[in-house]
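Hey, I was hoping to borrow your eyes for a little while. I've been staring at a protein lately and its backbone has me curious. You're getting the sequence in one-letter code plus the fold written as tokens. Would you mind checking whether the tokens look sensible for this chain? Here's the protein in full, and shout if anything looks odd to you:
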Amino acid sequence: MDVTFQFDWQAAIDSIPFLLEGIPWTLLISFGGLAIGFVIGIVFGLLRINPVRLLRWPAIAYIEIFRGTPVLVQVLFIFYGLPQILGGPINALTAGIAAIALNAGAYISEIVRGGVQSIEKGQREAGLSLGLSRPQAFRYIIWPQALRRMIPALGNQGIVSIKDTSLFSVIGVGELVRQGQIYIATTFTALEVYFMVAMLYLVITLSLSYALRLLESRGLVGQ
């Protein structure tokens, strides 16, 4: 059977205005979740290297649970499961941000741990020899250097989290994929619309990648 198909560029272009309505939601969920996840990551990353087992083991448990389970399962649990415990519904946007925050927080915890442990112990000892307390040595000597080394990995995590938002169409969040699904339901142009959805995600992630390379080229991150 001879089957011919022609890509409808006009249909793809026509879908762009409707798809663009989902970008603010995609960015809000990803960057909102990442901001919260960064705070979570700092706390649990430092607890992860704490010598006190009572503090270290809960951090390890959190990290392993959220790194070891799919973000889709996490958002479904938050959106559908938690309301049964809390006795009330959870907004889809709130569930999406929470899922990104908890998932990214687990990965950022390991980034923080690696960044802090990458600083030579001699630098902390040098700070103590200058009369700084341990918290001061960490704040003024260890953390600034560790943060510079963490930025590339944090940027990569940002890209992953942006792409993870595509899964949240299952709970009705109006991000890019959800907008595409709604548009396809009335136009039946799945190939063209999903092609444009992919291109828009690519523009967002490449822009973030370019910003990170720009920082690296100016010596603002890394060693």
